[in-house]
Amino acid sequence: MPFPGDEHTGTRIAHHRKRAGLTQRGLAQRVPYSYSLLTQVESGHKPASPDLVAAVAKALSIDVTALTGQPYVTELQQDRLAALVRPIREALDLYDLGADPAITPRPTPQLVAAADGLCQLVRATRLHDAAVDLPDTIAEITTAAYRSPSSVLWAALSSTYRTAHDLAVKLGYYDLSTVALDRMDWAASRASDPLLSAVRQYMRALVYFREGEYTIGQRLVASGHGLLELSPETRERQAVAGQLHLGASVIAARAEDADAVTAHLAEAKSYAKRVGEATDVHWLSFGPTNVRLHTVSAHVEMRHYGEALRQAAKVRIPKDWPASRAAHFYVDQARAQMEAGRTEAALKSIVTARKLAPQQTRYHSGARETIRSLIHLSRRTPDTLDHLAAWVGL
């Protein structure tokens, strides 16, 4: 069955390949994927996996979003999210103007609670609500921090910039996410909080991971561990260290370094035993559950789909687990199920991801590729799959 619509990641790969003056064989020689797979991806008969997209983008010296088509503006407009991006961009740009004379900030405890509340909204995938509140919260905490500087206020401001990064990534505005991380570091340095700076390095590493720059990603993780040396040994530090190892595990998996994957997961598991479930620490969701989820992700990245599904069967997600992280797991599981030929199970996983985190799943490029591939593999498209395809804009 043909794919709906004329444009998909494969057609974008073909377009940019031709613009670079390369044949399909010429491009295949520059990426670690076969000519046969590349032709099938361009024609829409095979899904464009994130690792392939990153490799092609790197070979063609373009951004990954040029191939994924992000941000998905039509759907963002339908969800009334597109108009909310500009105020966030302006809030990030005006960071150095100092206190706004028109603002009377709330007391510090209320501002800290507001910053945490934004993180909580993103974890609950209430992206629209978070995007509405974020610009004014940034402006208010900025004013408070300039008028009465304190580590607590600068840390709260750093947290709001982290929320801006999270929103930008989930909505497909990767250029904006990079600006947000710069602002996060600017505020974290004023808070004199090495843990915040380490979290920022973790997030930077994942930015380079998405772009296929795995060596840089690994260096950023190492830098994050170095920053932790400036902090006393606490549960918070251990949670951040463990999360850095989880980030390193998926970077190593994409780089096809199985030994490094095993080593990083073992380190993360060791930290998780000491820390327990630490969803409250910098909203990283670190703990035994996240170690299991990253184990699945690592096997998916290494294209060990059978092992990924065996590991996924062991996962038991707590009831209070953040919807954003749980939905990401089901998207990973769906990809593994689809590649293993379990199309009905893959569809169920995508439906579950949508129920848990509708806005996040709608704008997830991997979820879109899986839905597109399920349509191609289906002799008769189930109504549920038709509805999913229309919902994500295919």
From TrEMBL:
Entry-linked Pfam families: HTH_31
PROSITE patterns assigned to the protein according to its UniProt record, in alphabetical order: HTH_CROC1 (PS50943)
Record carries keyword DNA-binding: yes
Compositionally biased region (Basic and acidic residues): 1-10
Region called Disordered, residue ranges: 1-23
Domain HTH cro/C1-type stretches: 13-67
Molecular function in Gene Ontology: DNA binding
Cleavable signal peptide: none
Record carries keyword Acyltransferase: no
Name assigned to this protein: Putative DNA-binding protein
Species of provenance: Streptomyces bingchenggensis (strain BCW-1)
